[in-house]
Amino acid sequence: MSNARRLLPRKTFAAVAADIGSFMRGPGYDYGVDLADAPLAYPLAFDRMLEADAALFEPLDEAGIPVKGPCGAPGRYMPSRIAGHALAHWNLSLKPAAPPVHRQRFMAAAHWFAGQADGAFMHDLPLENMAVPWPSCLAQGEGLSVLMRAFAATGDRRFLAQAHAAVDLLEVPVEAGGVSSALPDGSFFLEEYPGGRHRHVLNGALFAAVGLDDLIRLSDQAELRARILRDRILASLERNLGLWASGDWSVYSIERGAAGARNACTLHYQLVHVALLEHLARAAPRHARLTRTARGWAKGSRRPLSRARALAMKTFYRVTNGW
Question: 290: which residues sit within 8 A by CB, 6+ positions away?
Fold first, then answer.
């Protein structure tokens, strides 16, 4: 056994090894999706992730819904995994001569989201100190994106009604069992892990903003409440994006871990941030900082020296914080 294996827990060692391979290879493809030719497509390339790794969302149940928990453990219906699987198949279904299985898998997931009580897409797995079941702004946002595409495809107003119900949870404070909170300057924010140790996670708020934007774009009625919430999130990011920046790299959340370590994003999360920021900047072009930040982080992902620095930060965080 090597010295590295003796010093690091197996899970941490495996994560660091995966990081090294990813950061050395650099971006394999652009995670963003151009909606100019396919306005109903989802703006993040879940379909390319699925094509690159066919087992990404497996195993599936009899209806084709992912049943996969944290770190690949089976037996849990995780809303974010179900949504990612659905949106991957949705984008694939938009391609010429797409086989019907893609639309079938998407609609199965859409009905799963439509069947969740009160539009709350809850997690039933224990995590950190959060009481089960717990909500997440990421799950609410991705669920909105699935429901609104199902509504656009079918005209079935049950999907639209469930999307409206899903917005309710975004307005409830964390202290009352919801996901809304505030950044250090008092700006409005939405939490991916309400009550957990990872506060103010950037990608969760971005997915929520995209879901709200989908409700605004794809509804057949004025969506003032969704517009106000989306714009509040974007205004907060416009003022505070620097909290998630370390040079030309993004960090997962704004708090520091043990030993003062910052949780530098993996290359995957860096590219997700770029794609979602670019999409939201197009949706609300007055927020120029979103575009500037996305461009800076995109350049960082292509620079070997920037990736090396981010890898060093990420490795230090994993070693000192255990994951």
Answer: 234, 237, 238, 241, 277, 278, 280, 281, 284
Rounded Cα distance between 199 and 19, Å, is 23
Q: Which has the closest alpha carbon to 206: 168, 172, 250, 174? A: 250
Q: Does residue 22 surpass a pLDDT of 90?
A: yes
How many CB atoms lie under 10 A from the CB of residue 186? 8
| Angstrom distances, CA of residue 238 to CA of 8, 187, 220, 231 | 39, 10, 29, 10
Q: What is the pLDDT of residues 298-316, one digit of tens each?
A: 999 999 999 999 999 999 9
Q: Domain ranges in the chain?
A: 3-321
Question: Which class would CATH give 3-321?
Answer: mainly alpha
Query: What is the distance between the alpha carbons of residues 178 and 161, in angstroms, rounded to a whole number?
Result: 19
Phi-psi region of 114 (alpha: psi -120 to 50; beta: other; left: phi over 0): alpha
| Contact present, 305 and 247 (Cβ < 8 Å) | no
Q: Which residue has the tokens 């941030």?
A: 273
Total H helices, total E strands in the chain: 12, 4
* Contact call for residues 296 and 242 (beta carbons, < 8 A): no
For the chain, the maximum distance between any two Cα atoms, rounded to a whole number of angstroms, is: 63
Structure tokens at 261: 């370590």
Average pLDDT over residues 112-137: 92
List residues bridging with 188 in a β-sheet: 182
Reported as a single tens digit per residue, the pLDDT across 162-206 is: 999 999 999 999 999 999 999 999 999 999 999 877 889 999 999
pLDDT at 318: 94
* DSSP-based three-state secondary structure for 74: strand
Instruction: Kindly state the tokens that stand for 86.
Output: 């659905």
Q: How confident is the model at residue 69 (pLDDT cuts 50, 70, 90)?
A: low
CA nearest to 147, candidates 192, 180, 107:
107
- How high is the mean pLDDT of the chain? 92
pTM of this prediction? Answer: 0.94
- CA-to-CA distance for 53 and 71, rounded, in angstroms? 15
